[in-house]
Write a structure and sequence with these properties.
Distance between the termini: 28 Å
CATH superfamily: Amino acid/polyamine transporter I
Structural class: mainly alpha
Number of helices: 19
Helix content: 55-70%
Strand content: under 5%
Order of helices and strands: HHHHHHHHHHHHHHHHHHH
Number of domains: 1
CATH class: Mainly Alpha
CATH architecture: Up-down Bundle
Shape: globular
CATH topology: Amino acid/polyamine transporter I
Length: 477
Amino acid sequence: MAASASMEAPEAQQPSLKRAIGPKLLILFVIGDILGTGIYATTGKVAGKVGGALWLPFLIGFLVAIVTAASYVELVGKYPKAAGAALYTQRAFRLPFLTFIIAFMVMCSGLSSASAAARAFSGDYFQEFTTAIPPTLIAILFILALAALALRGVSESVKTNVVLTLVELTGLAVVLAIGAWAVLSGDGEPSRLGEFESSGGTGFALMTSVLGATALGFFAFVGFEDSVNMAEETKDPVRTFPRAIFTGVAVTGTVYVLVALVSSLLVDYRVLEASSGPLLEVVKAGGVAFPPKLFALIALFAVTNSALINIMMASRLCYGLANEKVLPPGMGKVLPKRRTPVTGIVFVTAIAIGLVSTGEIEGLGDTTAFLLLCVFAVVNVAVLVLRKDPVDHSHFRTPTALPVVGAVTSVILASPLSERASDVYIRAGVLIGIGILLWVVNKLWMKFRHEPTVTRGSSGSSAGNNNGNSNNSDHSG
């Protein structure tokens, strides 16, 4: 390795990412990535769309998530690289523009999710303790603190994630325990579980209400796709990822459906809809003397976990895309001692700080879900296309029907049939427009960088004159 490194330019001498994540740690990482802001902050808004049958959108969301997760498991097994969906898109379609847009949508989805978490952190749960600090300032300081932790190192970040995951699981266990006690005590209204609320009676209006609730509720399931960006920091990723992703989605899906059942049993959906801390309402209604401030503290840890992981994943995506020449090489700069993607962390932190002032929790969460549903549709198609590209090692293979179902359901949930608010489409459109602008700028920059060496080969002897980019020349065109 030292010999080959000496042939490359300084930019190509970046240290590799550290493989610090084992099987158990990855399972907890996936669970922690999925759990958090969605279930703690948007449950009430989902109830407002569908009524007392709050459990149904979460059940449908779980089924959509597990189908798409199978596609990700197959692809990360074939290509254990850090760039995730962007890498799969490029290999399947060989369209650099589409690759960039998918990459940018994934990055923006992670950052809008982190921004939603920051807003949730600075909202009612934090105000249970004090209202003296402006929420926007709290959200910005929150993002900066997580960026500092991400810079410190992947091991520290993932271990922090494990602690926060256990805390947020404890919070959901409290909700389930209170619900079980209430049901055994004869409290709760089982009739609410079959009540549907729609804007226009029955039939088509009821279907669109359920789709709208599922689309928003799907925000609670996003996160499993982020874990594939940790492939270069995971020990034996081909063997580790199938168990980790399927276990993570199954555990969180089961917990979500049970929490939704308990929430509807104990609290009217109108009360849930009006609260930005819906699970706190469930705790208060359960008839058990559990301190509200303690639960609020648990909820703060939960949304912290969501934001931390999204900051980590977006920065790893920058690193991976820089290595794939989708972003300039400077975006792949690694902090030498800590071996963390320093440029990527700074870049995504700046965007996240900008996003915390662009919308409320529901709007940012729905934007996250919409962007990822579009990405999931492309990834599910990419799985089928890449069946023509065998690799020289064994890996998980999903049944062919599942990517088809995943693509169709993703398109339906991303469509106007889901009664999504117009500001979500506007926000997503603006973000994609920014992405297109960045694509043009990057294309011109790369053309300028490569023009002096366009007639040279990709041998190691030209690496010095090509600033370390010759080893990526096979990805062009």
